[in-house]
TrEMBL record:
Gene3D superfamilies: HUPs. Residues 44-169 form the UspA domain. PANTHER family: ADENINE NUCLEOTIDE ALPHA HYDROLASES-LIKE SUPERFAMILY PROTEIN. Pfam families: Usp. This is UspA domain-containing protein. Transmembrane segments: none annotated.
Length: 173
């Protein structure tokens, strides 16, 4: 675990060690002259995950419509405390399952991070840190009135994340 000082508030997070699924291959020469290092390296995509079905749907959508083989999918999960071992273990299991699925589906690399704090702020902070090609998140599936009263993570990210485009994947049905 590492704590960073950022402005005035503390930033606590734990990196999740995922199974090493992608074999290490030395860099090959580009097949075409126009193929650049940036293209071979791939892009970073940030996917916000939780235990809800709409989060899983957004993850599946990102793999089907956005991700390419050379990309790295960064999974971010916001929790109330990174020191709670039960929460950490369940979150790690979720991210491990998603990483295996991403590799089986599209052969993409996956990195995962569990971050302490409010979900919207955590996602925006991680987007600022990574500068991804896109931030993908699902909706919670609440109605308009409930979202206005309780707040919406996707709406917060839509208005406050300036580092990358925000893709909000609506829930099924």
């Amino acid at each position: 675990m590492e704590t960073l000082e950022e402005d005035v508030e503390e930033y606590s997070w734990r990196e999740v060690v995922l199974p090493h699924l992608v074999p290490v291959v030395p860099d090959a020469q580009p097949e075409l002259e126009r193929e650049t290092v940036e293209r071979r390296r791939g892009r970073d995509l940030l996917v916000a995950v939780d235990f809800g079905p709409n989060s899983k749907h957004a993850f599946d959508w990102a793999l089907a419509h956005i991700a390419r083989i050379a990309d790295t999918v960064h999974l971010v999960h916001a929790v109330s405390s990174v020191h709670n071992e039960i929460v950490y273990e369940k979150s790690r299991e979720l991210m491990e399952d998603l990483a295996v699925e991403a590799f089986k589906t599209l052969l993409v690399r996956t990195k995962a991070r569990i971050v302490e704090g409010d979900a919207g702020k955590v996602i925006c902070r991680e987007a600022d840190r990574l500068k991804p090609a896109a931030v993908i998140l699902g909706t919670r599936g609440r109605g308009l009135i409930q979202s206005v009263l309780q707040g919406s993570v996707s709406e917060y990210c839509f208005h406050n994340c300036k580092a990358a485009p925000i893709i909000i994947v609506p829930g099924k049905g």
